[in-house]
Amino acid sequence: VTLTQVRAHLEACRGDADHEAIRTKDSAVVGVRMRAAYRRLDVAEQVAADTVLAEWLASEDESRRFDAEALVDELQIVACVPALVALRARLATERDPGARYEVLKVDRLLCALSGRRPTG
Hints:
Layout: H1 3-24, H2 28-40, H3 43-57, H4 62-75, H5 81-92, H6 99-114
Helix pairs in contact: 1-2, 1-3, 2-4, 3-4, 5-6
């Protein structure tokens, strides 16, 4: 399985889950489906999925970042730390009012992945 195939699989899974979440008015569906999809991947596929999640963390799409942040948090995907550091640096320069809250979330994720306690 290639990175392109894993990317397509995760995109399709996210799209299907998003449609179901809208249809059922249950936003938790996306997280449940994405966690299950990730866990079904073998080790090599999870490595590729980590790359896809890093791409999602770099996205301008807040919804895509939200889903990636949730997966990284819930599944403790340490491979995404560099992408989180880059995201934090980018968000720190943005003027969007939500950026400062996302910085706090990213800081919490980075602390959790490093085993440190958040300071704020």
